[in-house]
Amino acid sequence: MVKQAANHPADVPMFPTVQDLADLTDWRRKLHRAPELSGEERRTAEEVRAFLANAAPDRVLCDLGGHGVAFLYDGAAPGPTLMFRAELDGLPIEEISTSEYRSDVPGKGHLCGHDGHMATLAALARGLGRRRPARGRALLLFQPAEENGAGAAAVIADPRFGEIAPDMAFAYHNMPGLPLGRAALAAGPVACASRGLRVVYTGKTAHASTPEFGVSPMAAVARLMPALSALGNAAKLDADFAMATVTHAELGERAFGVAPGRAEWRSTITTSSRIAKTPPKPSSASPRRSTPKAFSMTRACCRCAPPRISAASALSRPPRCFCSAPARTTRRCTTPTTIFLTS
Ligand SMILES: [Zn+2]
């Protein structure tokens, strides 16, 4: 039912007041001090509900797709439902800062700026609380678990979201380096999609004095990691942009007596296009060719990657883009691509 509350006349300004700005700044800093990771944003969601308790929404939905919170504002006349989205989660990164409002939580930081996104969406909520949309509905979604890609799908799968499904969805991201007070728009996707690739090598350990009795992944790791990184054309930010960043690597044990039998590394694959027409040209030898002859890959499987590990294929099959709608949010893989090594 669309309604126009008599105490929200159209001539009331919805832009933030000086008091709003002071409150929002303090609140953003409070959020910044207490980051929570994807899927664990219970206290942050409580903070959102408490801060906007007086923002007069027509409907509040809690625990959407996890800890998601949504506020609905009905307009005076029928029309489309427009959704605006912020994210609740921080990152598993230690914040190294001298700021007085730096993270109080060891190993966790709001280093993607989602605290700022929440504050700006809260400013919109306060404005809509004073002045409803002229028509249609405004839906303000504080989405959980953006950083691991799970939250958008979970919110969409929530039956209550189906009842309020938006006709259009808008998301935005802070962009450090842009002059204060300036916003940037672009036609088409504006943010790269990313996909996580985890590669596990399983060989055979041996005593360090007799490595010939084992199967070490060392040489394969040493060649495949730089080969994957070299596949992208990250020099130019255009429609064919693709980049593979090795983010983590482990080989063997923290010991001197064992020749390694296992290795694992992770890479984030970032692409600008939703569907690449042609695979990017490798700028060095392909990883399959560069794998030492002494090892053959007997199996490789991954939810996101081709049946046999091929970094070129992984780069040429970019995931869905998350330019605006949560339905297009990136998906990160948690299933390892496993490579079994045989001598
Ligand atoms: Zn972000």
Mean pLDDT: 80
What compounds are bound to the protein?
zinc ion
Main sheet, how many strands, which sense, barrel? 5 strands, mixed
Give the spatial strand order of the biggest sheet.
1-2-4-3-5
Determine and state the CATH class of the largest domain.
Alpha Beta
Helix content, binned percent: 10-25%
List the helices and strands and how they pair.
Elements: H1 18-33, H2 42-51, E1 59-64, E2 68-74, E3 77-87, H3 114-130, E4 135-143, H4 150-157, H5 159-163, E5 168-171, E6 193-202, E7 206-207, H6 218-231, E8 242-251, E9 258-259, E10 262-271, H7 287-290, E11 296-297, H8 311-316, E12 337-342
Parallel strand pairs: 3-4, 3-5, 6-12
Antiparallel strand pairs: 1-2, 2-4, 6-10, 7-9, 8-10, 11-12
Describe what this molecule looks like in 3D.
With 343 residues, the chain is of the alpha/beta class. It is built from 8 helices and 12 strands. The chain has helices at 18-33, 42-51, 114-130, 150-157, 159-163, 218-231, 287-290, 311-316; strands at 59-64, 68-74, 77-87, 135-143, 168-171, 193-202, 206-207, 242-251, 258-259, 262-271, 296-297, 337-342. A 5-stranded mixed sheet has the order 1-2-4-3-5, with helices on both faces. Strands 8-10-6-12-11 form a 5-stranded mixed sheet, with helices on one face. Strands 7-9 form a two-stranded antiparallel sheet. The N and C termini lie far apart (69 Å). Mean pLDDT is 80; it is low at 1-7 and 275-336. It binds zinc ion. Zinc ion (ZN) binds at residues 112, 114, 173. Residues 112, 114, 173 line the site of zinc ion.
